[in-house]
Amino acid sequence: DVQLVESGGGFVQPGGSLRLACNASGDFIRNYCMGWFRQAPGKEREGLASIYTGGGYTNYADSVKGRFTISRDNGQNTVYLQMTNLTPEDTAMYYCAAGTFCTGWIRSPPIGRPLYWGQGTQVTVST
Asked: Fewest C-beta in 10 Å: which of 38, 59, 88, 102?
C-alpha cells in the first residue's frame, strides 16, 4: 500500500500563492499516476490535476488551468501542486491521490478512481 501525506496548506489572501506537497511512503510514486483533488463544504470532490508516471503528461480542470501546476519529483517520492492567483472559491480541503489511470480524474463527474488517498490539507483563501 501507499501512504500519502499532504502538507503546505494554510491561510492565504486572495491573489496569493501556495505550494502543496504530497510525500509518499510504502511504494514508489514512479509506479503511479498522481493527482490532486479538493472538496469544499457542501460540494462534491473535484479533480484538479493529474500527472503521469514520467511527468511528461499533465491534465488540469478548467477551474484551475493556467493558475495551478502539478509536478512530481520521483527521486523525492513527492508530488507538488503550485497554486497561484488564489481566490476565495479555492477554499477547500485538498487531497493527493495515486492510481494507475488518471486521465479522467479531472472530468466532471470524474472517470475512474484513485487507489490511494491522503488525509488532506486545508487551504483557506480569505481577506
From this structure: 88
Between CA 117 and CA 6 the distance in angstroms is: 10
Number of H helices, E strands in the chain: 0, 11
| DSSP run (H or E) holding 5 | strand 3-7
- Pairwise CA distance, residues 98 & 27, whole Å: 11
Q: What's the first-to-final CA gap in the chain, in angstroms?
A: 40
Q: Please report, for residues 7, 13, 32, 126, the alpha-carbon distance to residue 35 in angstroms, rounded to integers and kept in the order given.
A: 14, 25, 10, 25
Query: Quick count: other Cβ atoms within 10 Å of Cβ 11?
Result: 12
> Model confidence over 57-105: pLDDT tens digits?
999 999 999 999 999 999 999 999 999 999 999 999 999 999 998 989 9
Residues 6+ apart with CB under 8 A from 36: 20, 22, 47, 48, 49, 50, 68, 70, 79, 81, 94, 95, 96, 97
CA–CA distance, 124 with 94 (Å, rounded to integer) = 10
